[in-house]
Design a protein that fits this description.
This is Phosphatidylglycerol--prolipoprotein diacylglyceryl transferase. Belongs to the Lgt family. Residues 313-322 have a biased composition (Basic and acidic residues). Its EC number is 2.5.1.145. The protein is mainly alpha-helical. It has one domain. 56% of the residues lie in helices and 5% in strands. It is built from 13 helices and six strands. It has helices at 20-40, 47-72, 74-77, 94-112, 116-141, 151-157, 162-167, 178-196, 206-223, 236-246, 250-253, 268-290, 312-319; strands at 9-13, 16-19, 169-170, 173-174, 231-232, 266-267. A two-stranded antiparallel ribbon has the order 1-2. A hairpin with a 2-residue loop joins strand 1 and strand 2. The longest helix has 26 residues, at 47-72. The radius of gyration is 26 Å and the shape is globular. The protein starts with 8 loop residues before the first strand and ends in a 26-residue tail after the last helix.
Length: 345
Amino acid sequence: MFGLRLDPIAFSLGSISVHWYGIILGTAALVGLLLAVQEGKRFGLSPDFFMDLLLFGVPSAIIGARIYFVAFQWDEYKNNLMDVFKIWNGGIAIYGALIGAFACGIIYFRNKGYSFWRIADICAPSLIAGQMIGRWGNFVNQEAYGGEVKESFLRNTLHLPDWIVNQMNVAGVFHHPTFLYESLWNLVGLVILLVIRRRPFLRAGEQLFFYFIWYSLGRFYVEGLRTDSLAFHGADWAASLMNGLWSPMKAIFGEQGYLDPSYGNIRISQLLALLLVIASVAMIIIRRRTGAASEHYNDPIINFKTGLPAGAENKKNSDEPNPKPPIEHNGGNAANGSGDTSIKE
């Protein structure tokens, strides 16, 4: 063992081991839920709405993330199918998680009678907050790190504490803490999202698109530092484009993380990040010009099944009087028990 590596197992209950990875992902989901619930109250959405979304969304995201990762690493899993289910060892892809979560969200929002764009806007800060926290699971597992660096870079240039520096020592070699770069980038993005959602210029769907733009920009440059990127063989001009777009980072971080040429020459996450930025910018422009983004973020959210603002039905039902059934007296003296004072339903 090199350095003071953190134990990936938090504690054990008999033969059951509870991993830090799972605890961190659970914390990320909880923080995301709290953010969505708090913002949803402004629009009349109940906490149960988001709790049910979490119950469906988290499994969908995990399944999507694992399928995405395994699909691009099939040669490593085809002869060890049971390893496909061992997500506590790492090996989930965030873009796969987004695909799974959004597929679930589209079905769930439509079933509840709400616009996908309006609810996804509310959930955007939850997504980036969850990713910000979730990256620390990679830290504990010593995975998703970057290329080789000198210890002095971590201690004297980045001024990182010992417990992070030691964890970046993998088999005697220090590496870029890419988990930390991405986590801090997401923290800044979270603050920006929380600020702009109160601005009057923001239209429906644009909070989500800004999330995609911000996260993808950071992911493009962080991914270039990693040594475990999923990749494929693409055209040389496309690979040159990716390298050219990343080249400004050389002045800060040095060379990109090693990517075996036999494995591929284009990092899949970089390509997807670039496409998401372009698509998000295009969608903002197109939706504004065509009038599809006529609603603003702060407008009431209307349920298209009832035609009422979110939460209006519950409020209406709670405001309706609940009269007590009348009490009929069938003669006699109630005091001496000679009459019938029962309630007639």
